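Structure ticket #2291
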Amino acid sequence: METTYIVGNRRLVGDVKVSGSKNACLPILAASLLTDEECTIKNVPRLSDIGTMLEIFKALGVDFSYASPHALKIQARNVSGEVPGSLVRKMRASICLMGALLGRLHRVVIPKPGGCVIGDRPFDLHIKGFKALGYKISEEDDIWTLDGKDLHGTTVCLSGPRGSTMTGTTNVVMAAIMIPGQTIIEDAAIEPEVVDFCRYLTHMGAKIKGIGTSVLTIHGGVPLHGCEYAIIGDRMEAGTFVCAGLITGGNIRISGLEFGLLDSFLHPLKKTGANVFQNVDGTIHVQSGDPLGSIDVETGPHPGFPTDLQAQLCTLLTQSGGNSTIRENIYPNRFMYVTELKKMGATIDHVGPCARIKGSCSLKGAHLQATDLRAGAALYLAGLCAKGDTFVHDIFHLDRGYEALEDKLCLLGAKIKRMKVA
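Resolution: structure written out below.
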């Protein structure tokens, strides 16, 4: 096991580049199984989740190799429809293999995936979409078997009680892409990562209209071919660095992100008076200025405030003036990190899906547990601005979504390092 040691109260200054988007990369890798030709994916982040996906590829018989540190060559000449449970249960996003294998083989046997424990995240919309396309589904001992013999284009509605589903949208697109005829997906997710995924499929020859809107029209049955494609930058990593610059009173420039991809985070953040702006080339400037004011936000599907930046914002707001409120509408149980922040002296009242944060808190270093990926990032931010030393345990969660995070922070002036523990 590893623990991260952070020396607090150090101002961050300099340039940092974000890696490729994890949330775009995983479904794009899965979509590469839809053809037997070679695909080259560029700007691939080196993350444990990507490593898990490649382990699954190996078990499925898929050939792959790194052409460079961040470019993957993938060729699925022959692929199995039996997905190994031991690997799938490590990562929730492995469910996107369902759509890819259904599109390629029209059959898949797969256990229910795992991942971060941040509350109920049902797969009912995925199943609803597959059934609408004509797939027969059976479940036994938490293992799904899906078969497609009488498949047809149709209209699929993916609306749910918490809005659209990103992974569900990509899954249904892949399952429908090789079915002759027209499939219309209503209430499709419109997150930038879904847009990137659809653009990748069009590079492979897919016919998809309405990309970037909530209605996708797929003209299926068109053979797909190999291609080269570069994944977008990770907006969640960029948002985390924005918070790191602000919480340390720093002055940093963040590159690697397309212009406008972080607007759903930056626009609400600017209401606090944060001195943050993005150039047309995508570079984000974070400069220290007047103390931040309070803000009330609630998470929601894009273009709403991103749930994956909720924990980081909460930590930042402990240093703002006044009282702020965050309402979590996507994963109501995503406040497990609050207990850890309270160990450092934060004053946060958490009831159900809402948290009320008292600003101007003086945080002190402590021993903390990272309960999930974004919670871990929030605790790193707290450690960066705290008085004294902070130790963050169970940091394997962060390796799922941040590439070389400690190295990047050190380049900005942080004193942070990993340590092996028994």
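Closing remark: Residues 115-121 have pLDDT under 50 and may be disordered.
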